[in-house]
Amino acid sequence: MNEAFKHTRLAKAIVITILILGGFLMVLPFVWMILSSVKTDMEILQIPPTLWPKSITLQNFINLFTQMDFLVYLKNTIIIVLFSFLGLFFNAMAGYGFAKYKFRGKNGLFYLVLATMMIPGQVTMIPVYLMLNMVHLTNTLLGIALPGLVGAFGIFLFRQFMSTISDEIIEAARLDGCSEFYIFMKIILPVSRPVLAVQGILTFIAGWNSFIWPLIIANDQKYYTLSVGLALLKGQHASNYALQMAGSSFMVIPIVIVFLVLQKYILQGFNVSGMK
Amino acid sequence: MKKMSKTITAVLLSLVLILSFGLSGCSSSATTSGSSAKNKSITVWFFGDQPQPFQKLVKKFQKQSGIQVNVQAIPWANAHDKLLTAIASKSGPDVITMGTSWMPEFVKAGALADLTPYIKDNPNLKQSNFFKGSVATAEYNGKYYGAPWYVDTRVLFYRTDLLKKVGYSSAPKTWNELLDAATKLSKRGKGYYGLTIDPKEQSTAFMFARQNGSNLIENGKAQFNQPAFVGAINYMNQFIKQGATPKTDLGIDLTQSFGGKGIVPMFISGSWNINTINTTIPDVKGKWATAVLPKGKVNNKSILGGADLTIFQYSKNKANSAKLINYLSGTRAQMDWLKISTDVPAVTAAWENKALKDDPLYKTFGEQAKTAEPLPLVPQFEQIAQNELASWEKIYRSGADVQKTMDAFNSSSQKLLDQK
Amino acid sequence: MKIFLNKSSPYFFIAPALILLLLFSLIPIFVSLIISFTDINITGLADWSQIHFIGLENYISIFQDPNFLQSIGNTLFYVLFGVPLVIICSMGIALLINFGDSWIFRLFRLIFYAPSITNVVAVAVVWNYLYNPQFGLLNFLLHFVHLGPIPWLQDPTVAKIALIILALWRAIGVNMLIFLAALQGIPKAYYEAAMIDGANSWQRLTKITIPMLRFATFFVTVTTLIGWLQFFEEPFVMTGGGPLNSTNSIALFIYQNGFQFSKFGYAAAGSMILFVIIIVVTLIQFRGQQKNADNQM
Questions:
Q1: For C60-292, CATH number?
Q2: C240 in contact with B at a CB cutoff of 8 Å?
Q3: Nearest CA to CA, how far is B347 from chain C (Å)?
Q4: Do A231 and B280 lie within an 8 Å CB cutoff?
Q5: For chain A: N or C, fewer Cβ within 10 A?
Q6: What's the number of domains chain A is made of?
């Protein structure tokens, strides 16, 4: 016992060392971005560059909110994110449908879903725009949210995970007379918590960073999102790096919070082992 | 109970979504674009940075005319996409600040309105008010599609202190002098150079070729493998061969190349650099200047770009739009914009203003703009220019044969020109 | 009632997502297919009467376009090296992070996920500096061990590898999360049983963990492969396809022709070809999985 304990302690130390080395490389650009956001414009362009800012300034963040309508963009972004969580729910439903039912045309329909993932996004841009324009949804937040609401990636991921849930639980619930939707809401979703957490993080990021549709659909700046606002900082000839870094850092804060909140669910496990 | 409410919410939400999609075709409440909303308001698409500067510029106009101006700023990288969707849907803005190089493409697509009928009421739009080269970017088949707004012309920026050290008390005046000065500057030591030739700048080769007597495109025939053009490429290549121009992208900003020790103390570029140098490298203050381009075999013409103020063909508010353009083409507004943005005026009268006439840095641009000419105004030029950059890359990086490469480039360009 | 519900319920579950996909993906794909047989350009976009059907002309000339052929070669290079690297690295890191649950491992989860949430603008600025041939951090570090300097983005082959490193760095986070989630689904009882049988940790890894991860691995493989076949953002922000067209990918080629040169028909033909390549590759994978796995699909 003692021997084994020592063994794991050593292994743990090795693992941590590897992770620290790798983690350093992974996190460096991220740290760089945060530190650069409090540097002056001149210091950012300096060669050789400084890692730690010589003098810390919050001017970039102040400029962000005074020079641009960042609060308006923030509001729009939050609305888009809320919409995208509705999309997440649809994805979960579809994933469950494909994972746990046998029905006519299942394979064909699933291949169709996958096919939508295989075409480069730029190709569909103009047709989708024309369709939304036809039904007068351009220049509305609904029009901005709709094209990216559901996605094959999400459906596919849910299907893969829900396939691993044992059929016995579902059958047992059916015998108890539960409705299909009740089973989905009360049994399937709770045991899918890890994958829901992963998808929740991904969905939040996608909504939070949404760029191309807000730009294309909006004919008024009052519908811009944060990413579009950030792109405005990139001029034709010169870019304001300090402001861009401040904007990027600001945008990352909510993502980190969501990640920290949701990540504990990833590790909660399916807890279906007893039934297998 | 909780479950029930959750279920109901979910079902309702999905219903709303599907219904709103199906029904909104019949609802009239949705507005499609800013163009028709109110007759007293117009929408401007402004490509570039933050919208505030432009909003500031039109403030006075709004007060005087009572016309509301909505400015929508659109990021540069996506300006083209945004214009395409506007054309496809035939709805969009009223006024567009259009880059001159995009004019041919969008004129051909019928996206822009002829301004001729509006000149009578808006005298500032008259073609004779602007630089000749700028007007050329807006006139097609006898029609006039945009009033020049600002000009972007390229001049020589150089470090006076470093050029003095190699025997040039004023800027190089001819091609030979430019090459000589650049070569001498590169002899200062390892890692030093003389002149920047930006490998991503589309206009450079065409500019040199024109100075060497090339007409670039004559009656629809590409002239890119003719002696005048090939000579210009050979001239550029000499800078590379003699080490006067870095062979690979140094990956450094203007701050490092032009500031301090002046790794590359000469470059050819536009007026926005004045501001950049003043704000990011104040340590070279008083040690640099601008000069008109050195003369080649035939002339010292520069490239002329910039932006034109255009009216979207599908705008329902053309008269008011013309009023706004009239305002922006006034000397006062042109000078205001210079102060806000450092873009230099396209209106020749503005150059009589002291702020421009007496500023040695800016004066150069006015002088250069008088003779400057735009790049060939054909819709295919964007792609031709990209192919030129690729051909030039093959020459200076991999040492491809100049004549052969230009022959290939010429025939690929001809193919593009022959497409309708 | 119950029987009715049972029969229609799968359709009830998949309908909302399918309707939206139909509208915003499948119909546009069909539209692209049609325009790939036309000469539509910006003039045609404004005035539909200017569009002409030209049959297979776009497809014939795109296969004679040296830039397109080169971009296919480049994309294959990316896929060949990128896909295995992403799978191995993200699975490896997920296994390492799954080793413990103390605060330090939780911190590592965030650290390894950080690249995925960094805005692409910031990514481009920082990596351009890292790869800077003269002043970049990477060459600075290599200098210490008497190596380099490496022309990261200047040499045609090195530039491809540099982009792969960057894309790998960005891709690890998401896939690591997927593997981590999947690792939680492996019943602890399996390991306990194996311990009693005297299996060592290597045997437990290869006999239990990796086989049990097959659903996640399959998912990551399929999506990663599709992602790399559509490789776009990294060359777009870092190199624009250069030097000498050596980092241009198929997706970037399509973008350049469609949105920079407004040759929509030509670009649509390119995307249909890419579409077919991806479908074929994905079908091969599903076939492979079908043979291995029990009842999927």
A1: 1.10.3720.10
A2: yes
A3: 30
A4: no
A5: N
A6: 1
By percentage, how much of chain B surpasses pLDDT 70?
89
Its domain, for residue A153, covers 65-275
- Length, in residues, of chain B: 420
In a domain, residue A51? The reply is no
Q: What is the pLDDT of residue C293?
A: 56
Asked whether residue A39 is domain-assigned, the answer is no
Interface of A with B (CB under 8 A): 41-42, 45-47, 67-68, 86, 89-90, 125-126, 129-130, 133-140, 142, 146, 181-182, 185-186, 212, 215-216, 218-221, 228, 231-238, 240
d(C-alpha B136, C-alpha A141), whole Å: 41
CATH of the domain at A70: 1.10.3720.10
pLDDT at B27: 34
**Lookup: tokens for B49:** 């940075």
Q: Would A58 be classed as within a structural domain? A: no
Angle between helices C137-144 and C120-130 (to 10 degrees): 30
Residues of chain A short of pLDDT 70, as ranges, are: 1-7, 45-49, 235-239, 267-276
- pLDDT, residue A18, reads 86
Q: How many CB pairs under 8 A join A and C?
A: 253
What domains does chain B contain, in order, with CATH numbers? 41-153+305-370 (3.40.190.10), 155-301+380-418 (3.40.190.10)
The alpha carbon torsion through C128, C134, C139, C145 (nearest 10 deg) reads -170
Among the listed residues B172, B173, B153, B176, the one whose alpha carbon sits nearest the alpha carbon of residue B162: B172
Contacts of C131 in chain B (CB under 8 A): 251
Give C-chain residues touching B383 at CB under 8 angstroms: 260-261
With cut-offs at 50, 70 and 90, classify the pLDDT of residue B328.
very high
Q: Which pLDDT value is given to residue B38?
A: 45
Burial tier of C101 (Cβ tally within 10 Å: 0-12, 13-18, 19+): exposed
Mean pLDDT of B339-367: 91
Using only C-alpha atoms, chain A has a radius of gyration, in whole angstroms, of 23
Q: How far is C42 from chain B (nearest CA, A)?
A: 6
Looking at residue C39, the DSSP 8-state letter turns out to be -
Beta-carbon contacts of A168 under 8 Å, excluding residues fewer than 6 positions away, are A275
